[in-house]
Amino acid sequence: MRTQRPALPAAVPAAVLAALLALAGTTACGAQDGAPRPVHSGTVDGKPSPEPPADAPLTDTEWTVTALAQGGTASAVPADATGKARFTITHDGSVSGGLGCNRFTARATVVGASLGFGPLATTRMACTGPAGEVERALTTLFARGPLGWKVEGRTLTLTGGADGADAGAAGAAGLTAEAASAAE
């Protein structure tokens, strides 16, 4: 006596499969309108998607000033001063670095999104040209009083305005700095 096996489902014809995929708005390879789309969470076209960079910590990071803002207008640090304005705020509240020409040290106070610098102790070299201009701008900014701070990825933004105004207001000032890479 023969035993009957249950019938296997018939193969889905290619035309029916294509129609179902068209109704779902995708193609068999997962593309929609020819553009890559996530196949499942964390992948694009079946490959792991890169993780967004983690925010660098405010403290214990060496920050290199890349741009200065005054009156709502930001401009890059002049080429002759690039890389000379750097600072590090330690976890215990001391801050030190270079202002563009002279070295400095001070105390820093972080309260929420506010960062204040105490009086700066600096070396006393005569600074002219672009490095001197950057130094004067940073010395003025750090003396303004509490600054707003924000870190996004490896970029630090400090903003402070006249009488607490935002960075876009007349008289407002600020800076943008990049975290030093592990190779530096």
UniProtKB/TrEMBL annotation:
Q: Which InterPro entries match?
A: DUF306_Meta_HslJ, HslJ-like_sf, Hsp_HslJ-like
UniProt organism field:
Streptomyces cirratus
Q: Where is the DUF306 domain?
A: 56-163
The alphabetical list of record keywords is: Signal
Superkingdom of source: Bacteria
- Which residue stretches, if any, does this entry annotate as coiled coil? none
Has keyword S-adenosyl-L-methionine?
no
Q: Where does the secretion signal sit in this chain?
A: 1-24
Q: What is this protein's record name?
A: DUF306 domain-containing protein
The annotated region (Disordered) lies at 31-58
Q: A Pfam family name for this chain? A: META
